Amino acid sequence: xxxxxxxxxxxxxxxxxxxxxxxxxxxxxxxxxxxxxxxxxxxxxxxxxxxxxxxxxxxxxxxxxxxxxxxxxxxxxxxxxxxxxxxxxxxxxxxxxxxxxxxxxxxxxxxxxxxxxxxxxxxxxxxxxxxxxxxxxxxxxxxxxxxxxxxxxxxxxxxxxxxxxxxxxxxxxxxxxxxxxxxxxxxxxxxxxxxxxxxxxxxxxxxxxxxxxxxxxxxxxxxxxxxxxxxxxxxxxxxxxxxxxxxxxxxxxxxxxxxxxxxxxxxxxxxxxxxxxxxxxxxxxxxxxxxxxxxxxxxxxxxxxxxxxxxxxxxxxxxxxxxxxxx
Amino acid sequence: xxxxxxxxxxxxxxxxxxxxxxxxxxxxxxxxxxxxxxxxxxxxxxxxxxxxxxxxxxxxxxxxxxxxxxxxxxxxxxxxxxxxxxxxxxxxxxxxxxxxxxxxxxxxxxxxxxxxxxxxxxxxxxxxxxxxxxxxxxxxxxxxxxxxxxxxxxxxxxxxxxxxxxxxxxxxxxxxxxxxxxxxxxxxxxxxxxxxxxxxxxxxxxxxxxxxxxxxxxxxxxxxxxxxxxxxxxxxxxxxxxxxxxxxxxxxxxxxxxxxxxxxxxxxxxxxxxxxxxxxxxxxxxxxxxxxxxxxxxxxxxxxxxxxxxxxxxxxxxxxxxxxxxxxxxxxxxxxxxxxxxxxxxxxxxxxxxxxxxxxxxxxxxxxxxxxxxxxxxxxxxxxxxxxxxxxxxxxxxxxxxxxxxxxxxxxxxxxxxxxxxxxxxxxxxxxxxxxxxxxxxxxxxxxxxx
Lengths: 327, 451
Known about the structure:
The complex is a heterodimer of chains A (327) and B (451). Chain A has 327 residues and is mainly α. Chain A is 73% helix and 1% strand. In chain A, strands 1-2 form a two-stranded antiparallel sheet. The two termini of chain A are 41 Å apart. With 451 residues, chain B is of the alpha+beta class. Chain B folds into two domains: 40-157 and 340-403, D-Maltodextrin-Binding Protein, domain 2 (3-Layer(aba) Sandwich); 158-337 and 409-450, D-Maltodextrin-Binding Protein, domain 2. In chain B, helix 3 (56-69) links the parallel strand 1 (44-50) and strand 2 (74-80). In chain B, helix 10 crosses helix 11 (238-253) and helix 18 runs antiparallel to helix 19. Classes of the chains: A mainly alpha (327), B alpha+beta (451). Chains A and B meet through helix 2, helix 3 and helix 13 of A and helix 2, helix 4, helix 5, helix 17 and helix 18 of B. Chain B: Keywords: Signal. Chain B: InterPro entries: Bact_solute-bd_prot1, SBP. Chain B: Residues 1-23 form the signal peptide. Chain B: This is Extracellular solute-binding protein.
């Protein structure tokens, strides 16, 4: 990892000026004792800050620089890179195909995030109300679905949907009698391709939502619910007017993560494409950037566009989160 | 994703690990290879072979011979998947730490890397390993401005395998022209002698551009041609369109193969009785395993009885299976099929170039070349092609190879394959799109990619 060696150690962030009045004016010694502790807190940040800067900051900076150059395979093997200004961005953003990919990705991301959230919340509520045995079964099943490596899960789903030997087609044709579906190609039409992809992505992301929301639900105090019940609030009212507002911060964070993850989905789409889908018609941002990898500068520009898009999509959440943290 | 989720616990730990890892690295680097030594220092070198095309027997031979000729050094063979090979090479070859010492690369991918400067100059080795006797199409694919960067490894021509018993039952004879081939495939599918569900006369999945290209080439068309210093897609040319019309007819009437599958493992449906014919490189012979012939021998078993059972099984498979080179437009000539095959090269970043050259010398010596031929691969050095034998497989392989044609020798042809433009194109044709319209769009995309 030459990158790690050559990156200069970042300067320590200067501790902000204390909000407290000058020590001379301060009443008592309590505040004075807090100052060295403050410095220690910032020192503790250093081990976390370094890997973030090295692992995320460096590639990000490099991607940004490359996106203004002409940088391909030849440059990778030592030819000097030429500066081309905004050319890469102009090429990409004037291509209607790129806008198609962006639109598809955003739609795919929103649909998947919404589905995942809905299903996840429903299951979390279910888990709160069922008995111990049922809850344990749910939890174990969920953990298994979540813990299986993405590639393994995707491959199994791909086999299930295989047009020649897949179980789904067999089930539809033999026991259910829809003979037209016996050799149906699920992946060849973009719409049904995305349907299969959605099933896989939702399958793998729901457990995380369930566990997090379930943990949130456990924090809702029983007395509050009991009091509301005594006041005559119906179950529906208690859920929408008490539970939801109380676990809102959790929901926000989970939804934010879902949007980010679903926007940059790669593995599931890539594997399904390789399984026989028309590649060009099914690209989402992740796979499209990968397909540009022959020309690193173009891929860098596209990745930067995607970063801006992610920030735009999540700006509302991030601002809200920051505000809540301030309070 | 996991970094975000568990950042609070993980990051400090990662930090410590990262710091120690870097420190360790820094200490070991100066002790790297010693360039001043005249005899290569003993070391472990890595050879990347792709897919299962090189049989295990040949791999064992290489590791053993290399260890014997270079005392103290060892050869490690790492198998890479053909899928996604280009991006893997892009990253691995650019790094001194990760670069393998010898790589096999698809002949269509070789120009991209040769132009980029990823491979060491082998011009001085060229004469020594065979010179003019080497497969010249492959030498060209690996050369830039007269210097040779990638040598041929092997060529695998495609031939058509068929179920002889099904042909007989359906009253179909071995076709002698390309037009007859289509008729035979359609007749076989209609007859479906064993009444198999979803039976294909010819196994022709929608993304199988390796085979589809044969019809384009044979009718005189091409995938792309150079005009001046520009490349233009040639699928719209009248010759290509003629071939594609035939391809579409095969897709609609002569196959039930999924339109969302590629040319991988065509022997699976063949062994299942679901296809009467398939076209593949001739070494596909070793993957044919018809249920009526299977003796259920344990592959690890080396007892005389097991060997006997295996021989009986092979004989039975051969008896049920026939093979011919895809016929051309007129009787007695072979079609111009797509020449698949590989080049072999030493990456510029190899840390043991001397040892890598020693390995190449082993690979180009008579013994190894003969072994390639014996396993049904057309060896890099055509002097040793005799070892292919003279059975029907060898004849079909040679017939097909004589007329075979490579993909256009454009610097960035690998990008066309990377973007899977031809898979998409043939899938559209299979799916009933108008060949002219689909070709016009694909020609545009090919030109965009190549120029």
